Amino acid sequence: MSNTNTGTTAGALFTRTDPALGDFAVRPLDLTQDIELLHGWVTHPKASFWMMQDASLADVEREYRSIAANEHHEAYIGLHNGRPAFLMERYNPAHVELVGLYEPQAGDVGMHFLTAPSDTPVHGFTRAVITTVMAMLFDDPATARVVVEPDVHNKAVHALNEAVGFEIVRKIAKPEKDAYLSTCTREQYLAAIGVTTR
Predict the structure, then answer these.
(1) Of the candidates 118, 142, 140, which has an alpha carbon nearest to the alpha carbon of residue 129?
(2) Is the Cα torsion angle 138, 21, 36, 40 positive or negative in sign?
(3) What was the pLDDT predicted at 138?
(4) Whole-number Cα distances in Å, 18 to 22, 67, 88, 135, 155
(5) Which strands form 73-80's sheet, in the order they lie side by side?
(6) Confidence band for 184, pLDDT divided at 50, 70 and 90
(7) Which residues are CB-contacts of 46 (< 8 A; sequence separation ≥ 6)?
(8) Measuring CA to CA, which residue among 108, 76, 106 is closest to residue 181?
(9) Which end of the chain is more exposed for a tag (fewer CB within 10 A), N or C?
(10) Are 46 and 114 contacting, i.e. CB atoms less than 8 angstroms apart?
């Protein structure tokens, strides 16, 4: 890893401590220091569903500069115990990704996440990451429901989504893939992680 400043929680927008795996934090993506790291993640064979396998460094930078310039789309780096460990994107599905493919509701927020490749996988890590992502999204009181559109063939993500409360609404055809439109309300998320509400 060529970056020296990525391994801190300075500038974190959200933090969460997982009882089993330790500290997670989320900070804004900084392309000046994160681009090489990001390129390695999105082009890794394990990131096939990210659909950037053959992207050059310039391609990745162009894509994420476009996201940074879009008022309806943001990208973040997630940290685990101070080290970069995942990518998170938050978007407004009424304007990005799902325009014309579903009926948006007030408080809808879309998200993508990608865990960094690892030679030594940690049991429960990806579930801890998606739980952190969902906790950050619902930390905003304006978020009523999270909407996702994973590839129909991405069985691992379907299982993770279900574990944090998502329900598949229907299959949709996007230009780049067939996807399962899935939604998770705040109540469904809290029930899935074992938090009771009245």
Answers:
(1) 118
(2) negative
(3) 98
(4) 5, 29, 18, 11, 24
(5) 14-18, 22-28, 73-80, 83-91, 108-115, 145-148, 178-185, 167-173
(6) very high
(7) 117
(8) 108
(9) C
(10) no
| CA distance linking residue 113 with residue 139, whole number of Å | 17
Q: How confident is the model at residue 121 (pLDDT cuts 50, 70, 90)?
A: confident
Which residues, 6+ apart, have CB-to-CB distance to 35 below 8 Å?
A: 57, 60, 61, 64
Residue with the two structure tokens 């927008």: 13
Between CA 76 and CA 28 the distance in angstroms is 4
Which residue in 152, 150, 44, 180 sits closest to 89, CA to CA? 150
Query: Shortest CA distance to 45 belongs to which of 32, 54, 37?
Result: 54
DSSP state at residue 4: S
CA distances (Å), 179 to each of 79, 126, 148, in order?
28, 20, 9
Please name which of 110, 91, 90 lies closest in space to residue 150, comparing C-alpha atoms.
Answer: 110
Task: Give the H or E element holding residue 114.
Answer: strand 108-115
Element (H, E) at 167: strand 167-173
What pTM value is reported for the model? 0.92
Which H or E run contains 77?
strand 73-80
Whole-angstrom distance, CA of residue 87 vs CA of residue 85:
7
3-class SS of residue 82: coil
